[in-house]
């Protein structure tokens, strides 16, 4: 089935969306929010699936046209966003461009960072950045959403724990990364809020394109209306989602509603293009000695989507514009301010 | 006021606790959970404060003895756990012990990592670790809980945004850290679930001991019943909580209920001891050329608390035992498992 959240309150309002993304219906009688549904999946799944069937069959009541511009992220905020870097070929390329070898262990031990999850951008929300010089980039990825998973769970036990899949735009501030990683504690300011596809889908919805814990479709990225890349997400994925879950669960349990990302989708076949500017710039550095493609400027747009074999959008599109963020300083906030004694 | 959560459901059940930590009263008519209270602070604060006054005055109804063994973490799960390393003296020491200089910028640019927040240990819950060889350590810290904070907020605008303070045991798996940090993406498996003090307190509760956005009391740590350290949390804190908030907010907004940690409390005055085993081991390496104090073993206990000037516990104690974790493989999970096609 396909689920989405209308932009309402802090956690959205759960709706069920038809397979063709044309119609929707409120699910509040079953679960008010997607996080509630994930927290109580065993109790709500059958009712949600029933509603989804009725919606597709045209017999659900109180339906309305699906408008993805009214959606928040399926999970507007989440308890976990753990992002892997499963397309190791991409990592190797980044290293090669700066003249560094990649350790052999990167082919067997997944790279992963803990991302911020306290607020995600809506799929059509502007990407607000204070400074264009921070090196604004998109990253097209696949993500899964899990239920509760015990500490120590291994790949062979992962079956059934992947409840939903989504697309991601993992916004990155490339020029903040080198100094931040040099400090040794990983990404922080260089990874602001990510955006997810309007619709999250259950694995059964994907049919034969979901196997080996990989999603076997191309991920299509447009920059300012022009095709930028469409690498195949099922190709060159060194670590599948079962292996990424095992990595997360090594020393801790995983809470329902946790989101785990694949990292930038990337193929060794260069003709399929890239899912982020950084990769294209690396290829230019290797070819010409310098990068030619600039990072995103204010006004630039990125569109990330995935089509099934019949050319229909599966998740709806992430479509975002980069805009300048201006922080407004509120003097009234300071009326009672004494910097040496906060009450 | 003082707030806690009874262990109930995924998000606990909010209670108000008396100043002396002896009595409590349910707050469910005002806010079912602490996250709900933080999401709606302006609407609920006055009612919670009123209930707190009545509880302390002995005129609240339906009160019951406060039992911290029945508490979950004040926030059993949270949307953000961002942990700084504000006692830079500690960072310098760690570096010195391995013969590395610390960059000068560490004195002006805070170190911070994104921690996992999808599940925290209760204050008296066992620390379950699969392998003693992972180098099990505690870290005594102070943490704040914020309301919503706009992107770009600066130190001079932070006033009023710190809603609660807590103590933390930031459990660390020291022997997993070097390999993990060498990969460049920061901590992940080496930072399992943290534990927080049973009680979270509002800044007004701390009187003159809360100023300059620092908490001016000693943090007391006992290991296996013996005093291990009691450094002063207001001394040698290079970055105060206003500066840590500014660091988090540089490229993103902060959601209500976000937890920001100070990092291990540490004083230059060595006679006050340490708040983690790693620091004592570093001091031993510098003095004797090798570490003498082992990491925690199964059965070891750690107790972290803070007393006011009259010797009363402010937050209640974190008191935890390290135990061996055994993952049970459930064959029934695999009944329908086909590794090459997950439905």
Automatic annotation (TrEMBL), chains A, B:
Keyword list, A-Z: Hydrolase
Fumarylacetoacetase-like C-terminal domain boundaries: 81-323
The keyword DNA-binding appears for this protein: no
SUPFAM superfamilies hit by this protein: FAH (SSF56529)
GO MF annotation terms: hydrolase activity
Classification via InterPro entries: FAA_hydro_N, Fumarylacetoacetase-like_C, Fumarylacetoacetase_C_sf
Record has Hydrolase as a keyword: yes
Pfam families in the record: FAA_hydro_N_2, FAA_hydrolase
Stretches assigned to the Fumarylacetoacetase N-terminal domain: 1-77
Stored Gene3D superfamilies: Fumarylacetoacetase-like, C-terminal domain
PANTHER family: BLL6422 PROTEIN, FUMARYLACETOACETATE HYDROLASE
Name this protein carries in UniProt: Putative fumarylacetoacetate hydrolase family protein
């Amino acid at each position: 089935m396909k689920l989405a959240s209308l932009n309402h309150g802090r956690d959205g309002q759960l709706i069920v969306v038809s397979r063709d993304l044309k119609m929707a219906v409120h699910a509040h009688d079953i679960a008010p929010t997607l996080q509630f549904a994930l927290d109580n999946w065993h109790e709500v799944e059958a009712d949600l699936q029933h509603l989804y069937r009725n919606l597709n069959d045209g017999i659900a009541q109180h339906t309305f046209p699906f408008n993805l511009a009214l959606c928040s992220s399926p999970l507007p905020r989440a308890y976990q966003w753990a992002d892997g870097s499963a397309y190791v070929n991409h990592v190797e390329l980044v290293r090669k461009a700066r003249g560094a070898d990649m350790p052999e262990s990167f082919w067997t031990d997944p790279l992963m960072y803990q991302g911020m999850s306290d607020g995600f951008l809506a799929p059509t929300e502007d990407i607000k950045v204070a400074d264009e010089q921070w090196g604004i980039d998109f990253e097209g990825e696949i993500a899964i959403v899990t239920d509760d998973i015990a500490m120590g769970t291994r790949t062979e036990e992962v079956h059934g724990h992947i409840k939903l899949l989504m697309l991601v735009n993992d916004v990155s501030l490339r020029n903040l990364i080198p100094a931040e990683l040099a400090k040794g504690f990983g990404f922080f300011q260089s990874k602001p809020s990510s955006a997810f596809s309007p619709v999250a889908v259950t694995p059964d919805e994907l049919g034969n394109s979901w196997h080996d814990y990989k999603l076997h479709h191309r991920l299509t990225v447009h920059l300012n209306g022009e095709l930028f890349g469409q690498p195949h997400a099922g190709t060159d994925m060194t670590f599948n989602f079962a292996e990424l879950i095992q990595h997360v669960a090594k020393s801790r349990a995983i809470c329902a509603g946790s989101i785990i990302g694949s990292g930038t989708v990337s193929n060794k076949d260069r003709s399929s293009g890239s899912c982020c500017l950084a990769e294209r710039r690396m290829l230019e550095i290797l070819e010409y000695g310098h990068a030619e493609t600039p990072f995103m400027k204010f006004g630039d747009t990125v569109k990330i989507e995935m089509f099934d074999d019949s050319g229909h959008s599966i998740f709806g599109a992430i479509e975002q514009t980069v805009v300048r963020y201006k922080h407004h300083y509120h003097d009234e906030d300071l009326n009672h301010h004494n910097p040496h004694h906060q009450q």
